[in-house]
Design brief:
alpha/beta, binds alpha-D-glucopyranose, five-stranded antiparallel beta sheet, 517 residues, 2 domains, 14 helices, 20 strands, TIM Barrel, eight-stranded parallel beta sheet
Length: 517
């Protein structure tokens, strides 16, 4: 019997932008609790909550000042308990986000470490003397600019992200002990698992040496592609070996999924398995062009690497850090149609799809005016890098401005032009909507998944299309065909279960179908 998480459809709630219960314009935990039915009705098995911990919000909650308390903007610990109870009551599991690579500069450890050069807490971060009047090495922050800032006494501390996100020194045993405490705190509270932020980070090369100068970024700017000494060190998987023992010691199959932001399937695969993480996000697929040959090759590699004992594959097309996939695939109705085709293909595979709030509505990336943008990526680059605000605009629940059912106040980011037409209410009322397509596909997947073999057989398909089959234990098989660019191809013979866009007996480009043979 597969574990619940192996094939769970997980819905990512970007808490700030999901639902605001108190009118301050920022989404919060009671807002999530009030809207859980949307996630259940969608057909998801679980939700992942982005960080809601105490935070000065320099990176919208990924800068954590207290990992075991809730920021007043988002609610209270009692609100977490209420959310967990309500979710569990309707059969939804809940994952929370852990941020172990760094803390906020307002975390009590760092406050003391920064102020007092003699404090033993300094060793829990990476403080170093400068070099030739500048920082200790040439490492760059992911958000732009140097990865080092100075303490009042002149020492430098490392921050691979914002200056308000100092990196922990994972070579210090107190850091391990503290994170084991945090893990247990949330497990004891009843969460079903964790999404682990920057899971390939944590350790840095012990000598903090400069990186080879001639490395080129590889398209999507994967961490480690230009700074191998700063990421993906050999020691990091031992942390997850220990965390796996801890999570496995709790009843109820708790799960860990790592944000392993590395460029190839084998690099990511090192993080998953029986004595490692249960899952890691499949970013190589997200970065691949929507092209049958590229997709078939990443999917085949992923199945081989991730469908191993104690682990399972994941499929991700959107999240709060990347351009929404309806936009990446061309935008407008054609982009949304291709996005549905891509999603339907992935829903036909074994493993866990991770769905980002708003993709079920076919939302596109919003293009925000400069004065509305808040992402540190935008701010630190002096406006050169657009930043991630465009995929983080609030979820439109109703067609009515100004709050669109998200807030009674002023939303923290403005709604884009698509909010009215693509609201939950508008799409709910339209049986041909993107939303109803997601609901139908997820319901069908739920019905089929217990009967489908995990093995995927590739079938012949014309260039520009891909086709695979999974045997149904009740007889026959499910066939999934995705046409990315071939001239229209015949629908496989059998019963047409679902198509991502209307089809005749031909599947046009940018379309996927499920057929029961
Ligand atoms: C991860 C998060 C991102 C955050 C960064 C630093 O990549 O997904 O939103 O800015 O880590 O914590």
């Amino acid at each position: 019997m597969p574990r619940w998480w192996q094939d769970a459809a997980v819905y990512q709630v970007y808490v700030r932008s999901f639902a605001d219960s108190d009118g301050d314009g920022v989404g919060d935990l009671p807002g999530v609790t009030a809207r859980l039915q949307h996630i259940a009705a969608l057909g998801a098995d679980a939700l992942w909550l982005t960080p809601f911990y105490r935070s000065p919000m320099a990176d919208h909650g990924y800068d954590v000042a207290d990992q075991c308390d809730v920021d007043p903007q988002f609610g209270t610990l009692a609100d977490v308990d209420a959310l967990l109870a309500a979710a569990h009551g309707i059969g939804l599991k809940v994952l929370v986000d852990l941020v172990p690579n760094h803390s906020s500069d307002e975390h009590p450890w760092f406050v003391e470490a920064l102020a007092d050069p003699t404090s033993p807490l300094r060793d829990r971060y990476l403080f170093r003397p400068g070099r030739g009047g500048g920082p200790p090495n040439a490492w760059q922050s992911v958000f732009g600019g140097p990865a080092w800032s100075q303490a009042p006494d002149g020492a430098w501390y490392l921050h691979l992200f914002d200056a308000k996100q100092p990196d922990f020194d994972w070579r210090h045993p107190a850091v391990h002990a503290e994170w084991e405490r945090i893990l247990r705190f949330w497990l004891d509270r009843g969460v079903d698992g964790f999404r682990i932020d920057v899971a390939h980070g944590l350790y840095k090369a012990a000598d903090l040496a400069d990186n080879p100068p001639d490395l080129e970024p590889d398209g999507v700017l994967f961490h480690a592609s230009t700074m191998p000494n700063a990421w993906d060190q050999p020691e990091v998987v031992d942390v997850y070996r220990r965390w796996r023992e801890i999570t496995d010691s709790y009843p109820g199959d708790r799960v860990m999924v790592g944000e392993v932001f590395l460029s190839t399937v084998p690099k990511v695969a090192r993080f998953v398995g029986r004595e490692r993480l249960h899952q890691a996000f499949n970013f190589p697929l997200l970065a691949a062009p929507l092209d049958a040959t590229a997709w078939q090759s990443v999917i085949a590699l992923s199945l081989e690497a991730f469908e191993v004992e104690g682990a399972s594959a994941t499929w991700v097309l959107s999240n709060h850090d990347v351009i929404r996939h309806a936009t990446r695939y061309g935008g407008g109705e054609p982009g949304r149609a291709r996005a549905r085709a891509a999603t339907l293909t992935l829903l036909g595979l074994p493993g866990s799809p991770y769905l980002y709030e708003g993709e079920e509505l076919g939302l596109e990336q919003d293009d925000l005016p400069a004065e509305a943008r808040q992402d540190p990526v935008w701010l630190r680059s002096g406006g050169r890098v657009p930043g991630r605000d465009g995929c983080r605009t609030p979820l439109p629940w109703t067609a009515e401005p100004p709050g669109h059912g998200f807030t009674k106040g002023t939303p923290w980011l403005p709604f884009g032009p698509q909010a009215a037409a693509r609201s939950v209410a508008a799409e709910d009322a339209d049986p041909g909507s993107h939303l109803w397509f997601y609901r139908t596909a997820l319901a069908l997947r739920r019905e089929l998944r217990a009967h489908l073999a995990r093995e995927v057989r590739w079938l012949d398909a014309p260039p520009g299309a891909l086709c695979f089959a999974r045997t149904d234990s009740r007889g026959g098989e499910l066939r999934v065909l995705l046409n990315t660019s071939a001239p229209a191809v015949p629908v496989p013979a059998g019963e047409l279960l679902l198509a991502s866009s209307p089809v005749t007996d031909l599947v046009p480009p940018g379309t996927a179908v499920w057929v029961k043979v």
